[in-house]
Amino acid sequence: MVDITPADGIPPAEVAEVELYHPHGWWTKYVFSQDAKVIAVQYSATATAIGLVALVLSWLMRLQLGFPGTFDFITPEAYYQFITMHGMIMVIYLLTALFLGGFGNYLIPLMVGARDMVFPYVNMLSYWIYLLAVLVLVSSFFAPGGPTGAGWTLYPPQAIMSGTPGGQDWGIILMLSSLILFIIGFTMGGLNYVVTVLQGRTRGMTMMRLPLTVWGIFTATVMALLAFPALFVASVMMLLDRVLGTSFFMPAISEMGEQLQHNGGSPILFQHLFWFFGHPEVYIVALPAFGIVSDLISTHARKNIFGYRMMVWAIVGIGALSFVVWAHHMYVSGMHPYFGFFFATTTLIIAIPTAIKVYNWVLTLWRGDIHLTIPMLFALAFIVTFVNGGLTGLFLGNVVVDVPLSDTMFVVAHFHMVMGVAPILVVFGAIYHWYPKVTGRMLDETLGRFHFWVTFLGAYLIFFPMHYLGLMGVPRRYAELTDMTIMTESAHHLNSFISIMAFIVGFAQMVFLFNLIWSIRHGREAGGNPWRATTLEWQTPQTPPAHGNFGKDLPIVYRWAYDYSVPGAKEDFIPQNMPGSFGPSREPA
Amino acid sequence: MAETLTHIGQTEPRPTGWRGIAADWSSDQRAFKNVSWGKAMMWIFLLSDTFIFGCFLLSYMTARISTRVPWPNPSEVFALRIGGSDIPLILIAIMTFVLISSSGTMAMAVNFGYRRERRKTAILMLLTAALGATFVGMQAFEWTKLITEGVRPWGNPWGAAQFGSCFFMITGFHGTHVTIGVIFLIIVARKVWRGDFDTGQRGFFTSRTGRYENVEIMGLYWHFVDLVWVFIFAFFYLW
């Protein structure tokens, strides 16, 4: 219990501390743990494991595209299963789980100055249900008929018809069940993250003093709590269509000359529900990346973030706008021209807050004391990549440009740059940045630089040529392109080149994984604050932080998170829990 | 609102206008003053759940307005033959009455909870649970009746197949909510009856002590489930 009386001119604690749950033994400490830090590591490990499966799937796809006809085991059906599972795993089970379940769990309590999430038990359940969702997903690889091959968008009617792999087998049922479980599990964790940020902050930590990492994860979680319901409902309804034979999404349709039992459903309804979830999902992945990259840049350029308040409003604005743009994924499905106009306009308006963020990152770097550490390299790579991917988004947001480009490799290049490569670069940067806090040791520098350059340059060599292929008209999701007149010989060479690059970049990730495991024991000792950063997670009495995070007394926050290189201060950083006697603050009034 | 301290320990003058609103919302330690963690969490959960029911109802309305075959007339389908004449929607009317009444008993339970009248609180909560169970029971009767008349999720004798699909899906999902509510009402009522919130008894799963506020949080959920029913009643039965 802290005293609730004011002392030394510090604002009083508004509530008494809630007693922590203390583990009784090995099982409750490391397995069924209620500590957010352990849950974070569990989330991250599970997400990484399933992400490896998705990585292997992408190799298999590239084997087929780069060297068509060489590998007999990659049938068209198998190819569809690979692209479907690769997309679904990467977007939901890797990126969403890693950013919110992994980084959210680790960083939110530490950064806001809390001992744990507000409801640790529910938080623990969140992970176990997530694990169950992953296991159900993986089980579809072993089910009769294999996983679903409907594409990650699972569009009906094809998703539940016999022509699609898994459509009339177990694949689609397991996929939808896994999604439903994921959403239930995520909701349990998400409620925790939101309430912890809103109601669980330490003394002096106003929302406008939160590190942007927390703002990004917080806004993304709120969005997820409002967007996942649409996917939940779509999954339940499609499951009913498939299992009970209802016709929510299934129109009257015949298959192999036989009239199916379905009648009167609307496939477009599914698209609306799916993309009402699907577009916010892009920003659920992007906003935590925006937040984290802001902190990486500020810390490693030793300079306060430029336009903090504007950055916060841009995050919130992007979050709100992303709920009114979803039908730009459906231009080719057909819609009233006025709707196309509306959705194109809202889509392009998002460019404004996004551009504000990019300018502010660049202006933070401007005349900064830039340290080209590995997290900084990844942060810089993110800015470039995100701008690249964002600019092609302007193409695809316009109806008339989108229609010819739709379902070509151009789209593949666009979304991989903007929501695949860019957030993953931030994930890597963040891991290099916070690994010392999680383990107490630094990741190996040489391996890290090798990993960075191969990943960064390799990603461009993979996805830049795809823009060109897309402009040529090469369609996506085609297992076999050999006999298409559109595929010139040089296009085939380009495809082989892309595939080889994909293998190289993939192997670089193995180096990264090796680094992760090797450095736990052999890495250089990091100390409590190796990056000389200001935020609270670096001010913990122990590294890695012990149960309860902050020892006997919670920290008290006197300043914002970006007091770097303040003139007149002894050091070039002043932690958030240092009072005015340690130097002035540049916090905007 | 609590004042924010600057790094040198001075309180800042409270900003006005939009900046004041932003300052209030982002104020020290808690965005919502005097709202406990549990209550905040329940409100945010209910917001999320609203989106789920919203999506269900919007999907149902889409199906209903876009179907090219006639939609079965709810007044006839949900009529009961009592005393030789068909009374439209009679069962649904009773169900609605029962559920709305349970909101009344729930509100009274919250009131008595804050007065520390354990016995009355527990009895009223159990009464609420009983009314909820009655509601689910009548729904089971409704389902049985429709099923014997040939309504299936994939079709029915009177018109659009989506009638049955939407009916079973939406009332089923709502009924699940009511059932979960009944279970938790009984659990919380037991805690109140035993005096767990006075003695500081720890929860079996969470190892945390509870407070009489838990009754109110339970009530939030229950009122939400009632409110959702009002929308289902209006959009599904009265349309």
Automatic annotation (TrEMBL), chain A:
<keyword id="KW-0813">Transport</keyword>
<protein>
    <recommendedName>
        <fullName>Cytochrome c oxidase subunit 1</fullName>
        <ecNumber>7.1.1.9</ecNumber>
    </recommendedName>
</protein>
<comment type="function">
    <text>Cytochrome c oxidase is the component of the respiratory chain that catalyzes the reduction of oxygen to water. Subunits 1-3 form the functional core of the enzyme complex. CO I is the catalytic subunit of the enzyme. Electrons originating in cytochrome c are transferred via the copper A center of subunit 2 and heme A of subunit 1 to the bimetallic center formed by heme A3 and copper B.</text>
</comment>
<keyword id="KW-0349">Heme</keyword>
<dbReference type="InterPro" id="IPR014241">
    <property type="entry name" value="Cyt_c_oxidase_su1_bac"/>
</dbReference>
<comment type="similarity">
    <text>Belongs to the heme-copper respiratory oxidase family.</text>
</comment>
<keyword id="KW-1003">Cell membrane</keyword>
<dbReference type="GO" id="GO:0006119">
    <property type="term" value="P:oxidative phosphorylation"/>
</dbReference>
<dbReference type="InterPro" id="IPR036927">
    <property type="entry name" value="Cyt_c_oxase-like_su1_sf"/>
</dbReference>
<dbReference type="InterPro" id="IPR023615">
    <property type="entry name" value="Cyt_c_Oxase_su1_BS"/>
</dbReference>
<feature type="transmembrane region" description="Helical">
    <location>
        <begin position="170"/>
        <end position="191"/>
    </location>
</feature>
<keyword id="KW-0560">Oxidoreductase</keyword>
<comment type="pathway">
    <text>Energy metabolism; oxidative phosphorylation.</text>
</comment>
<dbReference type="Pfam" id="PF00115">
    <property type="entry name" value="COX1"/>
</dbReference>
<dbReference type="GO" id="GO:0046872">
    <property type="term" value="F:metal ion binding"/>
</dbReference>
<keyword id="KW-0186">Copper</keyword>
<keyword id="KW-0249">Electron transport</keyword>
<dbReference type="GO" id="GO:0015990">
    <property type="term" value="P:electron transport coupled proton transport"/>
</dbReference>
<feature type="transmembrane region" description="Helical">
    <location>
        <begin position="494"/>
        <end position="518"/>
    </location>
</feature>
<keyword id="KW-1133">Transmembrane helix</keyword>
<dbReference type="GO" id="GO:0016491">
    <property type="term" value="F:oxidoreductase activity"/>
</dbReference>
<feature type="transmembrane region" description="Helical">
    <location>
        <begin position="38"/>
        <end position="60"/>
    </location>
</feature>
From TrEMBL, chain B:
<keyword id="KW-1003">Cell membrane</keyword>
<feature type="domain" description="Heme-copper oxidase subunit III family profile">
    <location>
        <begin position="42"/>
        <end position="239"/>
    </location>
</feature>
<dbReference type="InterPro" id="IPR035973">
    <property type="entry name" value="Cyt_c_oxidase_su3-like_sf"/>
</dbReference>
<keyword id="KW-0812">Transmembrane</keyword>
<dbReference type="InterPro" id="IPR024791">
    <property type="entry name" value="Cyt_c/ubiquinol_Oxase_su3"/>
</dbReference>
<dbReference type="GO" id="GO:0004129">
    <property type="term" value="F:cytochrome-c oxidase activity"/>
</dbReference>
<dbReference type="InterPro" id="IPR013833">
    <property type="entry name" value="Cyt_c_oxidase_su3_a-hlx"/>
</dbReference>
<keyword id="KW-1133">Transmembrane helix</keyword>
<comment type="similarity">
    <text>Belongs to the cytochrome c oxidase subunit 3 family.</text>
</comment>
<comment type="function">
    <text>Cytochrome bo(3) ubiquinol terminal oxidase is the component of the aerobic respiratory chain of E.coli that predominates when cells are grown at high aeration. Has proton pump activity across the membrane in addition to electron transfer, pumping 2 protons/electron.</text>
</comment>
<dbReference type="GO" id="GO:0005886">
    <property type="term" value="C:plasma membrane"/>
</dbReference>
<protein>
    <recommendedName>
        <fullName>Cytochrome bo(3) ubiquinol oxidase subunit 3</fullName>
    </recommendedName>
</protein>
<dbReference type="GO" id="GO:0019646">
    <property type="term" value="P:aerobic electron transport chain"/>
</dbReference>
<keyword id="KW-0472">Membrane</keyword>
<dbReference type="InterPro" id="IPR000298">
    <property type="entry name" value="Cyt_c_oxidase-like_su3"/>
</dbReference>
<comment type="subunit">
    <text>Heterooctamer of two A chains, two B chains, two C chains and two D chains.</text>
</comment>
<dbReference type="Pfam" id="PF00510">
    <property type="entry name" value="COX3"/>
</dbReference>
